[in-house]
């Protein structure tokens, strides 16, 4: 089993920056890809960014150029640096990890990000 715990959410003004963290514990060797998802009120959960074990990254078009996903393997921690925040970035952000065969999925409890105009 893998446990994921997000932190770093909060209230920030439009144009501001925020860095989210996701601490992983347990059988993390089984995780091949880690992602950040978000879910705004009344909307479906959407993928924001991904990073593979090899370090390849993916960004949703809506955040490309404003967001950076990274990880510190020594600390078993995933990060999401968000700059130039917009009101539409307001959502609960979730950390997710999955195994290479897609059979195992792990979710954190989420952290709220609110961008005020």
Q: How many strands in all?
A: 11
Structural class: mainly beta
Beginning-to-end CA distance, first to last residue: 40 Å
Strand content: over 45%
Shape: globular
Order of SSEs: EEEEEEEEEEE
Output the number of helix runs: 0
The proportion of residues forming helix, as a percent range, comes to under 10%
Please summarize the sheet with the most strands. 7 strands, mixed
- Runs in which pLDDT lies below 50 for 5 or more consecutive residues are none
- Give me the Rg, rounded: 14 Å
Average residue-wise pLDDT:
95
Quick overview of this protein structure:
It contains no helices and 11 strands. The chain has strands at residues 2-7, 10-13, 18-26, 33-39, 46-52, 57-59, 67-72, 77-82, 91-98, 105-107, 111-116.
What keywords describe this structure?
117 residues; seven-stranded mixed sheet; four-stranded antiparallel sheet; 0% helix
